[in-house]
Amino acid sequence: MKKPDAEYYVVVSDLHCGCTLGLCPPKVQLDDDNIYKPSSIQRKIWKYWQSFWQDWVPSVCVDRKTGKPRPFGVIVNGDTIDGRHHGATTQISQNLMIHARIAKTILEPIVSLCGGRFYMIRGTEAHVGPSAENEEQLARELGAIPNEFGQYARWELWKKIGGGLVHILHHIGTTGSQAYEATAVHKELVEEFAEAGRWQEQPPDIIVRSHRHRCMHTHIPTDTGEAIAVVTPGWQAKTPFTWRMAGGRLSPPQFGGVIIAQGDEELYIRTKTWTIGRSRVE
Fold it and tell me: Based on the structure, what is the number of domains in the chain?
């Protein structure tokens, strides 16, 4: 028997499990009987992760009238593992089995929390393998809901939540200037409406993107209320690549996620973002 759907969906992304700067549990068993213990930054990120699921999500996913907990679904929007990529030397291990093991350890309790209402979206091939082969295997092991083609990790998700329509995929354009951080996000929303009108399809009420590791959202009014574009923060500290990026090298990393919910009239979003402060002044 199919479980009833939820009016709340939690979206997280960019865990980059397997990176020494990514999300990591308190201890990792390596392939050769060695143990990896997370760094001080990873321990702080892990505390944010625990607070996100144990404190923030339960505080939002409640009945607005009674205050009682309400069921929710979970969508992981890509780059669950870090993979072997770009000649990077920041991996815990070059063995991708370890990356997948870390991600599975982290996400299995989340699948239980949401009662199996669990979806995975494919991320960047450099991280998750050609055609996201590593993410597909992980999604299958976690019991993610497959699409009509039998893909457990899919490229996109069109999802009815409450009375609205949501479109979720991983990639979105980036910028080196905070002054234009909303540009690609708003442009993506406008293009969704243009494509929907071109082919006489229903436009989405909310679109969700990730990849940038930075939270941002824009809104436009519509005849049903408003349409929203939101980008999720990630769960990875600044990598050597980030330290040389325009904009990124000055910005602190962001950690957190997004909740999409059915309101009294239309869908709305709630975002939660933490950061790590500046380096020590010496």
Answer: 1
